[in-house]
Write the structure tokens for this entry.
Amino acid sequence: MNKELLGVVLIYGLTILLAILLGRSIARWLRGEKSIWNLMAPLERLVYRICGINPEEEMTWKQHLKALLTINLVWFVYSFVLLISQGSLFLNPDGNPSQTPDLAFNTAISFLVNCNLQHYSGESGLTYLTQIFVIAFLQFVTAATGIAALFVLFRALRDKVTDKLGNFWVFFTQSITRILLPLSLVVAVLLLFNGTPSSWKGKDSIVTLQGDSVSVSRGPAAGMIAIKQLGTNGGGYFGVNSSHPLENPNYFTNAVETVSILLIPIALVFAFGYYLKRPKLSRVIFSVMTLGFLLILSTSIWSELNGNPELEKLGLQQPTGSMEGKEVRFGPAASVLWGIATTATSNGSVNSMHDSHTPLSGAMQILDMMINAFYGGVGVGFLNFFIFLIIAVFISGLMVGRTPEFLGRKIEAREMKIAALIALLHPFIILVGTALSSYILVYYPEANWAVQPAAWLNNPGAHGFSEMLYEYSSAAANNGSGFEGLGDNNIFWNVSTGFVLILGRYLPIIGPLAIAGLLAQKKYIPETAGTLRSDSYTFGIMTFAVIVIIAALAFFPALTLGPLAEYFSIR
Amino acid sequence: MSVHNKKSIGLFEPALVNTALKQSFSKLHPKLMIKNPVMFTVEIGTLIMFFVVLYTAFTGDTAQGSLGYNLAVFIILFITLLFANFAEAIAEARGKAQADTLRKTRQDTPAKLVSPVGGGSLAEEIRVVSSAQLRLNDRFVCEAGDTIPMDGEIIEGIATIDESAITGESAPVIREAGGDKSSVTGGTKVLSDRIIVQVTTAPGETFLDKMIALVEGANRQKTPNEIALTILLASFTIVFIIVCVTLKPFADYANTPITIAAFISLFVCLIPTTIGGLLSAIGIAGMDRALRANVIAKSGKAVETAGDVDTLLLDKTGTITIGNRKATNFYAVDSNEEKKFIELAALSSLADETPEGKSIVELAGQKGINMHRSNGMEFIGFTAETRSSGVNLPDGRRIRKGAQDSIRNYILKNGGQFPDAVTEQVNSIAKNGGTPLVVAENTIVRGVIELQDIIKPGMQDRFERLRKMGVKTVMVTGDNPLTARFIAEKAGVDDFIAEAKPEDKMNYIKEEQAKGKLVAMMGDGTNDAPALAQADVGVAMNSGTQAAKEAGNMVDLDNDPTKLIEVVEIGKQLLITRGTLTTFSIANDVAKYFAIVPALFVASIPSLQGLNIMNLKSPETAILSAIIFNAIIIPILIPLALRGVAYKPIGASALLRRNLLIYGFGGVLVPFLGIKLIDVIIGLFI
């Protein structure tokens, strides 16, 4: 096998292996069984004492949501204030300025919702203070928020006829102490030994081989890079993210960072099965996600390794596939794996420029974010998948002649209403956002803004359309990566994507938790031979079909005008 | 079942089609359309197209496409609406026709009203009035040859009644006051004797009236399941509204003018019109199928719930076994005194009017022993306390016959001994599914009578079918546990309630419900009424008491105890039809996208011809083919919606696989073929 493809297979295989182990370990302590993580208990108790939390207090789903939303609001205010005043605060050796209010709004929201859409460049747009106490801080707590929300769902689906679903603060704290913190430490150390900086000193200056003197940004990067990968955050320390030689120095660190992208989202799928003692259900869900992931990945790899047809027409050889926008040290296959992994999981970090991928590959990345449930972001990916699961349960329940039920609870009008609303939300915000920007671009190109709409796009035609579509998909999926041709640091994009971010984050958490909370209170119906088993592969196919029909079909016209038009025009 | 076939109505009987056609137009009223959000949006689209046609016709401006093209789109959309309305109308018409044949039986008949003379309360007279004049609680008299004018309950007398008008069964039945068989139905005929009947329902409120109202739509409420599905379909509709509305700025960006006709066509093709158009027809057809099986459902929900039933309570007698047990053997304790034992057995049964009792006398007669009543015999009837019966002879001998434990108690109480040999005999009979009756003379056990049950042919298969559906069957019987177990095993039911008292049924239902299961049962007696009310699906027999009929949520006109099984299948079929057509409808979108989307953009982005994988002739033919397919698939599926998708008891996962393959995969494939074919045909003309 081709060495590049072998690398992809090995990285992916290793991820799954580690994810199974991690998932099992999460389920163990979540069930309250003895595990090595009980070592963290004293630290957690300290946190509870300082914060005045009673870990024994059980919450209803509404109380969980209240806690989640309240703490998020606090973090928003805190981050916004630090960002607009960072220029005059300490830990700013490079003397970077404060952010403008609309950029600070976008940045605060974007990191608060675990998206990390960066309309700034890390080296110049932030200070060491905000890198650590805003960016890295939010990267930990927002990932933990997603995981904690998922744990509420786990509890709701396990416990029968109850409205008490555990304590949010406990779930939240343990997500950090038992998952994010230890894993980040390991990844950060691996990165450190491979040359990623972790320093408080300001820019360094080096003399290149050409004899030029350049200054190189550095800072406390290694730790932040670890959590940005593990927590499906994606907001890089440096502007060009993990294509930067200090953020991702070599093939080994690239492998580590790729594994880190997928590890926790997949592990949580397995944790679900072990926790509910329904490992087969997890395997089916994992298989559905993996089927989707691999279809998208292989299309993308095929497209990229075939190279750019336009270059071929010029008679240029592309033995390694399309290299445009990619780092030589990673090569196209590893770059594609990263690109698909990062868009599938709502991570958003990049090791190549997605803007420069071949059109079909770009289409796959956008599609990934439109679906947003093949693994998905930490915690929230599974929550998204849960919505599709509910719809699939409903339709297939009817198909076998029973009122639909999932894990012994009937799915009725109320649950369908919520599921339908959430499923509808995603296409709504992406399409309406893109429609709005297209409309302004066509009818008000000369609008009297700091950046005129006419100057938004780097590329005309279909590719420009893809840039806008990508931006809103990225915001809605809380992904954070961008088709970098777009001039997005201006008031229109900062504010419009800001709102898309909020809608795309909180409603898909509230909806599934509400459904789970409602289901938990319902009468439990034991399984009979007539019950449609949700852990059968037939049902898995049904779920896959629902995802494709709902998530992909709604976007078909938009994808046609963007990447598909581009694909057919250069084919 | 086979009995009803003669009553079935052809799917598209001309008279019904005529009514339905007229209805299709009157149902276009927006007030009626808005109940179906999917088709309502189609109606709005059609209206917009109407204005586009007018605009094009009067201004001659062809920026929105030629007049002919716009007119064609308008007409096809209009026909789509009519098709959807027709589906609903034909389902209603069939339901009504079915109900009418039942209603014909209760046309105006003379009623012999019993009324007080001159308003006093002492004397009563009989006046002949029209049945329409009967009111709730009125009493009327029926004599041999009279047609019973109205539903009611016999309060005096006993009669043989010909119910063939309702049930199609020609053998007369006996109805009498006081028992569990006291109800009479309007339209049936008294063959002998005289009864006084009290009217139990107000005019216009009989079950049949209620059922007709449900079918006619006036009272038709959406079931919870239908509501949830409507929500899902509405949200699909909204998604596609978003897709179509946002397409406008997208197209502006791409410099591609899209005509209004194309927008509306895309929208109508994408929203689930197929299921939207057929949804109410499916629901009505479900009620109709119940009616066809001679079951009157009091609500659509009852039929739907039947499909969900987890546990089925079935009476042994009449449902699982044929009628009644028969005596098959006499086992004397002392084999030398067999003749004497048979005499005793026959004596004890002389006054026993139960079929079992009679069969004992019969069997004795076959063995050449004929006993007769004589003066001085004091017959002891069966009571719930003693659970035995018998006779005290003039010579002082007391003969008792009953189940083992009751006779044992009787003997022990009177200082006798109960031999082990008898216990053995009793057990061996019970193990073989027989019912042992022990006969004692004074304090000495004389022998055991064996009664045998005969299981109805075909019951094993039916229970196997139910098991595959995931329905647990429970046999309810008064037999002792050993006998019950034997019959339960032989018939293939999953569980049994032996030595059942009426409250046992109730407790069993409550226990199952506490476990989250849905329970169905059938009953007729007043005793059954609480359990019928407690059960999720309670089917009362039409011959049963008024109390039972009020308590249940369905009434079986045939009084057929196996009907419950049919009802479950009807319910499942209803849900399956809904689910599979939804899947089919949504799966169709894939092909429609591939037909329309390239057609929209190919003018300005020629390279998108690559997406036109069906190789349709031109953008216009592509759009027309897609909406024509979208329209004609509705009438094509009407027979399926009315008949229901076949239910196969093969287990849930296998069933899903099957239906997913046929309606999901088929739903993706069929429109590709259909649209291509239509395109080829209209390509010949355009």
